[in-house]
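The instructor's notes for this session suggest beginning with a concrete chain rather than abstract definitions. Hand out the sequence below and ask the class to guess, before any prediction is shown, which regions might be ordered.
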Amino acid sequence: MARRTVLVVEDDENIMELIAYNLEKEGYSVIRAECGETALNRARADPPSLVLLDLMLPEIDGLEVCKRLKADRDTAGIPVIMVTAKGEEADVVTGLELGADDYITKPFSPRVLLARVKATLRRRTVAAPTDMEKILIHELEIHPGRREVRVKGKPVRLTYTEFQILHVLAQRPGWVFTRYQIVDAVRGENYPVTDRSVDVQIVGLRKKLGKAGGYIETVRGIGYRLKDLER
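After discussion, reveal the predicted structure:
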């Protein structure tokens, strides 16, 4: 089996070496890039399995790098984990909406970083369920075709919007969805949903799901996710 390659984009030499050392110890191949332009060139020349992208970069910042990667057909499918400083919640939201898969804040432990890398690569390996495919996760059974939800075999009555939100989250367990992403997914059929009303819908959804509602996690300042099976 070929080694997975991680493109690490980081302008701080000490952090770069720390990340590279831990990745290589776990069997990953590491490509280094100290600036955004170099990162884009290397991603296009030899697409990696994953990009670990610092947002604070000289010249071209990480958000612009992410935007260009996702706009290029040859690199759009490469998963991206953003590395951010505390207090950059707005940048995290923007990055997720641009197509980044996950984020981690500095300072971070190498174990957490490796876990995020592994989880992101695993999620990209497993195909997402189709829109009409039944989803079984935790105690939940979600039947899109019949618009039915069961918790431990017992039916739960949800509104159209509640069902749509749960279905969106369940299709990508572990992925963080911003409120705007949820709004975009739920819109349609004259159901008015705003980013603020998503919070209200989540409260109602959790209540109806009972204990299983605890699997819907709030990511402070960002949005929501359905707990991954391995978390």
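Then share the key points. Helices lie at 13-25, 36-45, 62-71, 89-98, 110-125, 160-171, 179-186, 195-209. The chain has a mean pLDDT of 86.
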